[in-house]
BED-type domain-containing protein
Amino acid sequence: MRQLNHSIIIFQRKEELLVCIQVNRAFPSSAVSPSLIFLVREKDVCWEYAEKLDGNKVRCKFCLRVLNGGISRLKHHLSRLPSKGVNPCSKVRDDVTDRVRAIISSKEDGKETSSAKKQRVAEAKSPGNYSAIKALMSVETPSPIAKIFPPITHMGPSSSNDGENAERSIALFFFENKLDFSVARSSSYQLMIEAVSKCGHGFRGPSAEILKTTWLERIKSEVSLQSKDIEKEWATTGCTIIADTWTDNKSRALINFLVSSPSRTFFHKSVDASSYFKNTKYLADLFDSVIQDLGPDNVVQIIMDSTLNYTGVASHIVQNYGTVFVSPCASQCLNLILEDFCKIDWVNRCILQAQTISKFIYNNASMLDLMKKSTGGQDLIRTGITKSVSNFLSLQSMLKQRPRLKHTFGSSEYSTNSYSNKPQNISCIAILEDNDFWRAVEECVAISEPFLKGLREVSGGKPAVGSIYELMTRAKESIRTYYIMDESKCKAFLDIVDGRWRNQLHSPLHAAAAFLNPSIQYNPEIKFIGAIKEDFFKVLEKLLPTSDMRRDITNQILLFTRATGMFGCNLAREARDTVPPGLWWEQFGDSAPVLQRVAIRILSQSSEADPLQFDDIDMTSEWVEETENPSPTQWLDRFGSALDGSDLNTRQFNAAIFGSSDTIFGL
């Protein structure tokens, strides 16, 4: 039987894949080798995420947005990559995004033609590029960290060794440049690694000069084009200005201005306000300029944190811009509630006892191995980006691992080790056997969980202003239910929540958003609709300031609240709890056009300034670090202030690793 050799070439034409299979029959070398071409049509796998409409239009099954341009534009929509001028999908699942990105990446792998390759080689050989070739051939002086941790070389081919060495190099890059570990969760992080891997051996990254000139300008241009597409949406959805304050390594008070809308949040500008941070007039003028940059008619809300002169700036904005609301950062306020919980005596005592256990485990390598063996490799502590979040997440994890912890400390392997006789061990066993301690842990977990859930909701990067009122109401109800037999504890927690809610978090905009949220308005279990109606009317008067604008608003409100017309159709009913509120109004609110416009603008706003991460493990946290007897493996702790944002130079790195001597580097 003659052997058939074949090659497969994939073309994409509109919504179909054309698979061209070229079969070359094996003939004697003297013969001409004819080829048989078979064209096979294959339906694009991405059609399962879309609905084909008339013409060249498709509807995304996740966000229901209609796109022009067929399946190709849908892929870029689902990939959430900044390309093709397509707005990213706000509802697509992460696994779908990963799948679509892989499809796009595989398609682009073979794009470079042989002529392009020849041109690239010719350009490299041209006299004009001699300096570039020289730069590529030059041998750079190894970095300080490379001198201490030289690259590992392995004899013979081994993909596993190559992968381990690559991970090691990446880790050292993070350490040397004091990068936050959460950077590794950035979508662009893995994209960067995949792009580099496609370049093959010998690729060298762009220099600092190229980054700050050529690439900075290119990326700025790309972002500018993307932002113009997003700005077109503001006429419908409006936008939120987010003022995020922070202090850099030079003790400068900086204010970052971000702009958020349903499609995405992007950076607007950063201002050094060190000299005027307490000057209300200056800050008011600064916010004025930002509002004017974006257009007063486009701005629905301004979110600022408590470090600014909130009251003074807010009063100025409200007086000068009748349709703009000023709100506090929801995630910051929820975090402050958890922080106040930690200050209650018995809660603080519970946290300290739990930290005694975690410190003992994490500062003994063999004990840590034994614990992970009992928990199936799971960590005991879960620290977040704030101290209070870390405390309650770790208590939650410890409660879940309670039987495994007891098994660890009671095992024969534990009793035969030297650390079983340490004083800390006696304290740990006493705590683990204390039923009062575990009851306190259970209470802390039960009381904090609704607020942690609220943090996840408002920090998810999606418009959440319509859910804040319900989240806070449910959280307070959970406290009342849990402490139904303990009025004293119930009052202590509720006083904290009510204080933060009344003085900081509550806003008429939140009440109006709750009233207009279909999942709340039509939920028979919700009892606070009557209580928020007055705030809803105040917001309407603010957004519709003239009687002409409010002419038919009463009838439109009745259509909505009574679920008549399109509001009551089967599609609208089925989508109440599954479709984002703003999009629900866009689809089903046509019978109430004035109220529809107001609802879309309100429900499209975000509610937080800085997303919280819930799975950061900070190995210098209070749950791990022992100040009296630091673990020798915690060598990064010795960087001190070098890791807090200031420059980490050779001398600091050397001192951190080896003490004060500079002789190793010859400096």
User: Anything to note?
Assistant: The first strand starts at residue 4 and ends at 13. The CA atoms of residues 9 and 122 lie 28 Å apart. The mean pLDDT is 77. The chain is about 50% helix and 10% strand.
